[in-house]
Amino acid sequence: MTKSNTKPIWWRALPAFFTIMMVSTIDILLLNDLIETRYATFYNLNTTSKSSQRSMCLNASHASGISTSLYLTTTNTPMTISPPISDQIQSATAKLNIIVSLSVTVPAIFSSIILGSNCDIIGRKALITIPFIGKILRYIIMLSVIIWNLSDIFIIISVILDGMFGTSALTILSTFAFVTDCTTLKQRTSAIIITEVSITFARIVTLVGLGYYLKYFGYLIPFCVALGLSILGFLYSLLFQPESNQTVAHLNILQQIKLVRLKPLFKVLQVFTIKRKSNNRKMLLLTVLTHLSVIVMLCGYASIVYLYLYGQPFCWGS
């Protein structure tokens, strides 16, 4: 067997994969907590000690009314507040979370479908690397939001850029494709199990560590850590991540991206429209819809559970 036909070791994709999963887990908790804290400050509930904040949340009472906008366009503090403060904060946070979710999901769907359908043409390395660019841009903007207290529109811009580069979904797709390329049928099951387990491990480590950082250091250091991880993941993917598709292994990432075409996209759509024996087509559609439903449920649950814990009756802070 010649050297050119030798496949890379399958676990070479795990460092970048583990890193992007850590960063994505940081996204979920850190952004939710930051938005809630910004609105708590906006409504004068975050200007005292932690114990005082919790007491104010637990004993929040009705006052004269002001409306809640979709997102902050100013950092000025309102003069009056309506019904319980915790409800005002939860309402404003929930509305912004909806906008943020749509802003990252819509571009991510298009970029993942277009680039993902070209995965066999442009190779795996490019798709493992590209999402880190979006993460780097996202955290640079988020650090600016924290340092200069910018309006929420910049948070929305940051997640749009993240979505345009595919987010972690693109890395997950290309990583599993890489593992499949580099394993035999006998090796594949154990390799995929290890890759799946690394997702859980990355999330557990990140959530535990992030909780302590938020408690003692605020938001600046966690966002710096997320930016640092994104840069490290990008450099590893760019310099050390091998390409499993030997037909494009000699090309750099820009040359690989230039190979993107729309024709593979139509072939992907044909998978769902082509006639199949028995009920195979219906089963495929049902499986895909079930998978999408689970993803929507998990994503929605993550945001809602944090809001519930922040408000009455728990009033838990970071």
TrEMBL record:
Alphabetized GO MF terms: transmembrane transporter activity
Keyword Zinc-finger (UniProt): no
UniProt-annotated location(s): Membrane
Bilayer disposition of the protein: Multi-pass membrane protein
One Pfam family it belongs to: MFS_1
Keyword Membrane attributed: yes
Main location: membrane
UniProtKB keywords: Membrane, Transmembrane, Transmembrane helix
One CC-aspect GO term: membrane
Name this polypeptide is given: Uncharacterized protein
Organism per entry: Didymodactylos carnosus
